Please model this.
Amino acid sequence: MKKVLIVDDSIAVSRQLEKIVNSGEEFEVVAQGRNGAEAIKLCQQHKPDIVCMDMNMPVMDGLTALRSLSQLMPGITVVMVTSLGGVGDKYTEALRLGAKDVISKPFEKDSVLEMLRRV
Model:
């Protein structure tokens, strides 16, 4: 079973994504964070297989955290989450920094699970 870390400042979004991730037998949410700084600490603590992280959060945004995680834990699988519909510079920047994919809100269960299997 692959370990998943969810990082989003919205509790509702985190819970929705957790429900989807835990719905199958392939993935398990091991921790949740509210910002990029927490993401870095939780990654070092739980060593997740996949990190699902919001791009826009207070304290430290997802792109800044992704930049740090890529240096601290090379090869970590990060999927960015956005409500921007994956449009524009941030989408391109996330992929350039090493994100494996970008998920758009609102989530569709089947497409989220398929993407997690793919990364």
About this structure: The CA atoms of residues 100 and 118 lie 9 Å apart.
